[in-house]
DNA sequence: TATGAATGAGTATTCATTCAT
DNA sequence: AATGAATGAATACTCATTCAT
């Protein structure tokens, strides 16, 4: 299904399979466990991010990787395990632990701009969002959000309801990723980063402020 | 797959079938086209919202509705048509056309609170979000967002980059829906509406303001 | 399947349902048993001849006839019975009983020219040929051929192996019908009747001759 | 549908699998791609010839072949492709290109006698005739007849209307095949070949003659 | 290590048929 | 007499997974 993404994956494949390069002996090509494993990972990353768990077949992934489908089971055990391997936290949220609060907007801007916007490259968040119909994926997302935002980042926020404010930040991050990379709404998909950043600040910085929500309730 | 949600659907079915409210015996209701149709719609609504398009089988939906799977084809023509019938715009965004800007936060608050939070009821947005791996769904989402936000709502915003700001609003709406109803992150899933509202204002109202992004760039 | 042949059938339908004609009261239109029955027969005749038993659905036939599919069962009992009713001997071979032998070629010519060649009209033989994958149809064909040719017509032939010669005649009749009306091979489908007749004679008349096969065996 | 023809197919399978002719134990033959493929072909050949395309299910064919139905898709891609593989021209008509005209009758006699007459073996022409309700099959038959008879063989005939005469020959060939092998009319199904041949000559040779139709029109 | 042969459960969809109205 | 609601079995096809090589 969905044609092939072989061309691109082949590159990925070659990146980790530098046959014909210089120092690596050019003989070993098949029977290259590490290479096969990472080729599968690369292909899966792409497929899963693009089509979601359910619309990817193990065979398609294997074909993209240029190996036999049975190897998915040899190296990962199951389609699900492969997905887990691919969608396992990539340290994407790591910066949130130490980043100065006034740089958070810029970081979010970076995150939602990852990958070539044109061709829906494998964005780590998108992989999960695209498969958010799977209970397991949702569970992992909950754990991750809880750990990173509700517990981790919230602790760095002064003021009331830090937990909620952190999750609102997460919500925006996900929403923008979805609209910009998956749904590709007209403005978000095309706006240059610096413009986006200015508006992100407008919405985010108040949330990070110590006296948020401020006196905002008055005029409601 | 995924056992049965029959019990609940039966309720939905009856709840949305306001005929013979009290004295009609609730049994013997075969040969009731309208009832069957709406039972199927109800069951599909629930299943699709909960598991997404790919993880719902026509058979399961029919079983939930208590009818034969072939009736899906009699009444809707295909699984896809049934999904369309369920996910077709329900006028959810209608209020955005006339609502005073300072009530937008409250409206968002309402939207993301729709349906019993405990049991992941069929939220119209969630249905689409859960199936956002389907190209058709993504396409429809893009159309809807474009029409309602990028074109419709943006026109009501003064200041620069109205389109982008409108889409950022949409992004937040979707992100919060996702976190609150699907992912169920700890704070968002439990925070009472009025509390949520106060913080929503803090993030949203600046975006709606005529001189957004204001002088926010200074301290970055 | 296969679009609709409704237009034509409607005519058939009207032919046997002369509403708005002159002397028949224009009220009776629904609740017209005979009319419904014959409308179904007409539609079935067309469909079966065109697509064969297996590629016709009862619903399509009923739709062509402009009535509900259940009426097929009311009036005929089953799809199979409807097919039988349609394919039951129409006296097509009746002339073979008395026709002078030297007019047989001309008669065959007539038979294979029945119905508008362009639009594959319901040819009684074609109906059976198109469904010759059904055991029942084959059985009936065998009976019919046996009765009409092997027993009936053969008795009128002098000379040896009359039975075989009669069946060879039947074979040619069927083969030409198939090629001319179903397969529509270039020459047979377009050749005018009088030309065809001249060549039919060349092949058939020897078979009907009393001293057939004559001295044909010599040069083999 | 139609029970099983397993027993016979197994034979066919083994007969056409000339490996380990004697000493190889006939059991234990899994993981044998070529064997599986040809078993499927054999089973399909038989089923299709006997029941026609529409009355054969992929499952039944697979069951006859003793393998899983999914393998039909592995090896052929679709039911239709399997049918094509089975019904693809087998060079049956090849002899018509060079055969001396006075041996044509004998060749036809051979063709219509192919396969055990008793048990409706897979005759290449019968396969197509039995599925002549399919548009694709009819189309292929038209092409084949056109190429082989209307164009190829006709060129070898002297005299007028060669094309028509060639098609009349084809018609007879098909009609006899149908009556002899499918319908099994009493005489044709039992007559020995040499007798049949004598009468075939009587009908066919005149058609092949250079001055056909001769002066046959006089006595009509 | 890698391949590809084999499987069985599952999917959407169609259809002849029956039942209540 | 006629309708259309309902059913269940069947169909072609796909896919994750396992087994022999």
Would you give an account of this structure?
With 220 residues, chain A is mainly α. In chain A, 58% of the residues lie in helices and 0% in strands. Chain A contains 11 helices and no strands. The longest helix of chain A is centred in the last third of the chain and has 22 residues, at 162-183. Chains A and B meet through α8, α9, α10 and α11 of A and α8, α9, α10 and α11 of B. Chain A binds a DNA duplex (21 and 21 nucleotides) through α4.
Concise account of the structure shown:
4 copies of one chain form a homotetramer. Chain A is an all-alpha fold and 220 residues long. In chain A, 58% of the residues lie in helices and 0% in strands.
Shape of chain A: elongated
CATH topology of the largest domain in chain A: Tetracycline Repressor, domain 2
Oligomeric state as shown: homotetramer
CATH C-level of the largest domain in chain A: Mainly Alpha
Q: Give me the count of strands of chain A.
A: 0
* Biggest interface and residues each: A-B, 67 and 66 residues
Number of helices of chain A: 11
> Spans of chain A with pLDDT under 50 lasting ≥5 residues?
6-28
Helical amount of chain A: 55-70%
Q: What is the radius of gyration of chain A computed over CA atoms, rounded to a whole number of angstroms?
A: 20 Å
Largest sheet of chain A, in brief, is: none
- The average pLDDT value of chain A, as a whole number, equals 83
Tally of structural domains of chain A: 2
Give helix and strand order of chain A, one letter per element, not per position.
Answer: HHHHHHHHHHH
- Proper CATH architecture of the largest domain in chain A: Orthogonal Bundle
Query: How much strand content do the residues of chain A show?
Result: under 5%
Query: How far from one another are the termini of chain A?
Result: 51 Å
Structural class of chain A: mainly alpha
Organism (chains A, B, C, D): Streptomyces melanosporofaciens
Domain HTH tetR-type (chains A, B, C, D): 34-94
Protein name (chains A, B, C, D): DNA-binding transcriptional regulator, AcrR family
DNA-binding region (chains A, B, C, D): 57-76
């Amino acid at each position: 299904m969905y044609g092939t993404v072989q061309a691109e994956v082949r590159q990925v494949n070659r990146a980790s399979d530098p046959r014909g390069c210089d120092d690596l002996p050019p003989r070993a090509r098949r029977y290259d466990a590490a290479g096969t494993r990472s080729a599968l990972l690369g292909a899966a990353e792409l497929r899963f991010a693009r089509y979601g768990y359910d619309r990817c077949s193990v065979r398609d992934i294997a074909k993209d990787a240029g190996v036999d489908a049975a190897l998915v089971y040899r190296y990962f055990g199951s389609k699900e395990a492969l997905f887990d391997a691919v969608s396992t936290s990539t340290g994407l949220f790591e910066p949130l632990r130490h980043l100065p609060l006034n740089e958070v907007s810029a970081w979010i801007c970076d995150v939602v701009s990852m990958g070539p916007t044109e061709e829906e490259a494998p964005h780590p968040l998108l992989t999960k969002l695209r498969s958010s119909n799977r209970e397991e994926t949702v569970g992992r997302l909950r754990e991750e959000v809880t750990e990173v935002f509700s517990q981790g980042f919230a602790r760095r926020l002064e003021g009331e309801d830090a937990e909620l404010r952190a999750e609102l930040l997460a919500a925006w991050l996900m929403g923008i990723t979805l609209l910009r990379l998956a749904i590709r709404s007209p403005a978000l998909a095309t706006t240059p980063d610096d413009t986006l950043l200015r508006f992100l600040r407008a919405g985010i910085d108040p949330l990070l402020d110590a006296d948020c929500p401020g006196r905002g309730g008055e005029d409601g």
